[in-house]
Amino acid sequence: MAIYIEPELFLEKSAFLKIIDVRSPGEFEAGHIPDAVNIALFDNEERAVVGTIYKQQGREPAVLKALEIVGPKLVGYVTEAQKYVVNGEILVHCWRGGMRSESFAWFCETIGLKVYLLKGGYKSYRHYIRQSFLLCDRLIVLGGFTGSGKTEILNELGKSGEQVIDLEGFANHKGSAFGAIGQKEQPTTEQFENNLAQEWLKFDMRKPIFIEDESLKIGTVVINENLYSRMRSAKLFIVDIPRSERIKRIERDYIIVPAEKLVSIVKRIERRLGGDRCRECCEKFISGDYKGAIDILLEYYDKGYSHGMSKRNQDMVHSVKLESGDPVKAAQALKGAVYNG
């Protein structure tokens, strides 16, 4: 008999056993447990057919239709599953931990495999990880104006042994109108959350976790509401870096596409930037005066960030003034402020 286990133990076992996700390709693409393998019991159309029969006629007719679909594919399922077996064991789940995963487990057991099923299926996993974002009471939020090098500072903190979450890295987006430049395609919000949780669950919740200050949305993905509420109530350390240093960093990181592309992005924010400043900014990009164009954009972004900061609980906001944009020195200064301030 397959053994049902809770999400926490299921994920622990996934460190050395492979997860087989038997949901449809469409479900898998929308979001899946990181590193899981999709061996779909039904394709997208077959799942829709079985689901419709279940709703309209009940369980028995739906099961019969499912068996009709699955029968000819049975050998293929088992052959594929054998590729991922470790010491005769395998992890399996579907959406709710019902018919699909139970059927697949039975197939695997007929050839002698030991199967662990996720109790409550993928749905219970999602509930578990979403709740896990409430666990940390020592969240340290790193803030700063655009171009302050917050991601680089986080990287240096990670190298020094601190627990770090790079939200923009998981989102494949740098968080502004220009944030998609040089990035891969963004994941779905669900997959972003799953990938983030994989790192989050490794942490010691008794120790600080450093994370960058972000809006609720990063590009197209949305931060989990539990995590975001923790971020908004946590201590915020703002790194104060000279504007000239910020302009240099932005030019290095963003001026990697043709000027026409940059102009098209500027025009998207014309209403917020203002018609005259938008035209001036575009002209500077076209003429190659990148520093001048960036300086105009920073007027807009700095004003927006300052307005956001004015709404925060000022007792929880701390400034870390820096003379340069060196991320190593910035990380050291931040640690000093956090642990000795």
Task: Outline the structure in words.
The chain is α/β, with parallel strands linked by helices and 341 residues long. It has two domains: 128 residues, Oxidized Rhodanese, domain 1 (3-Layer(aba) Sandwich), CATH 3.40.250; 205 residues, 3-Layer(aba) Sandwich (Rossmann fold), CATH 3.40.50. 53% of the residues lie in helices and 13% in strands. It contains 17 helices and twelve strands. Helix 2 links the parallel strand 2 and strand 3. Helix 3 packs antiparallel against helix 4, helix 7 packs across helix 10 and helix 8 packs across helix 17. It is elongated and about 70 Å long.
Question: What is the fold's blueprint, element by element?
Answer:
Blueprint: E1 3-5, H1 7-13, E2 19-21, H2 25-30, E3 37-38, H3 44-57, H4 59-70, H5 74-82, E4 89-93, H6 99-109, E5 114-118, H7 121-132, E6 139-143, H8 150-159, E7 163-165, H9 167-171, H10 189-200, E8 209-212, E9 217-218, E10 221-222, H11 225-233, E11 235-240, H12 243-254, H13 259-268, H14 270-273, H15 275-287, H16 290-310, E12 317-321, H17 327-340
Parallel strand pairs: 1-5, 2-3, 2-4, 4-5, 6-8, 6-11, 7-8, 11-12
Antiparallel strand pairs: 9-10
